[in-house]
Structure formats: C-alpha cells, structure tokens
Amino acid sequence: MNNNLLAKWEFSTDIDSTALIVPDGCRDLILQVTEGDRPRWFVSSLYDQSKSQSIQARSVMNGFRFKPGVGVKTESLLNSISNIYFDDDEVFNRIDDFTYRNYCVAEALEYLASGVKSVACAATEIGVSQRTLQRLLSRETNRSPIYWLMLARVRRAARALAEPIPLIEIADSFGYSDQAHMSREFKHWFNVSPSVLRQSPAILNQLNHLGYD
Predict the structure, then answer these.
(1) Is 55 in contact with 18 (CB distance < 8 Å)?
(2) Per-domain boundaries in the chain
(3) Which of 45, 122, 133, 211 is the most exposed place for a label (fewest CB within 10 A)?
(4) What is d(CA 195, CA 179) in angstroms, rounded to the nearest whole number?
(5) Distance of CA 173 to CAs 90, 154, 167, 179, 188, Å?
(6) Spatial contact of 22 and 190, defined as CB atoms under 8 Å apart
(7) What's the pLDDT tens digit per position in 97-152?
C-alpha cells in the first residue's frame, strides 16, 4: 500500500440509508458507484463534527484513507483518476503522484496524539515554539494544534466507553478537568453525550476504524 495511505475500505447498501461519519482526522479518496449513475470519484473533507450522510440504494463505495496530515493535490488527483474504476494498483500509483507527507507535520501530529497534556508540552517535545507549531499545522493541515490534540483525546476517551468504566474515571484518565468537561467535548465532536454514545454500537464501531489517535 502507498506510504501516504492508512487503510482501504468498502461500503455497500441495497436500501436508501444514512451513515453517520465521525471525525477521524483523515481525508479519503472515494469511488462511489450507484446503480443508474456514472461512477464518481471525490475527496472527502476533514470533519470537525459528526455528520450524517445520505446514501442511495444500490450504492457501492470504495475508499482510500490518507494518513492524518497528508497533503492532497485534489484537483490534479481527481483529473488523473476520473476514468479509473477498480484497478487498485493504478489508484495507488496516482495517489503516490498527487499526495505528499511533510515529515515535520507527521512528527507534530504524532506528539499531539501521544497523550501530552497541552500544545505547549508537544511543542517542547518537538523542540519548537508554540507559534512555530501553530504556523506549521495551520499552513499544512488547515487546522490548529489544539484541534489535533483535542481530536486524538476525545477519540481515545470515546473508545474507552466500550468498557464498563465509570464516566468520571474515563474523564480523569484522559485529562479532562471533570465529567462535565468531557461531556461538552463529546457533544462538540460527536453531537451526543458520553452516556448516549456508550449505547450507540454503530458509533463505537466506527471509532475503532483506523484514524488519528
């Protein structure tokens, strides 16, 4: 698999349906094939909150998930790939041609997802100023360091809900000031409270897919 790819996935449905997409810090190159329509390639957005996506009946989607922070020359990639349908090797070649990964960005994202308490701590570990880190990530990912720090933390905390651990203990384990603070973060990112998410197997399952954390 291409070095800029995290995973390849497939999804299909025989009925009109709605999929909830949770923020994962990644963008995807997606081929959507719906009965009666032309196949369509597109690159997904980097989501800041959970989003409901309507999917038509008899649709098949093949996705190529980029690693967090990977740069994509979107227009060039889509122009080059418009007539390619299911040849994975050729898709990988085109992805290699039109994506790039900045080593400094990859290092910064790794530290921000490592469980550090703050952006300041991450900057110290990397050996740069907070201002330099802010400029780097804002320029290369269009998101701030605090976005990446909070996203990694909330995803890890959400996966902990699969275990019968009291919410107050999860909040403490993942660095939230209290349970109310964690609940606000869950509602911001996932549009539901921790207690509701704990009873939502579809969301918990999606949080186990490869992403930024």
Answers:
(1) yes
(2) 5-100, 103-207
(3) 45
(4) 11
(5) 44, 12, 10, 11, 19
(6) yes
(7) 999 999 999 999 999 999 999 999 999 999 999 999 999 999 999 999 999 999 99
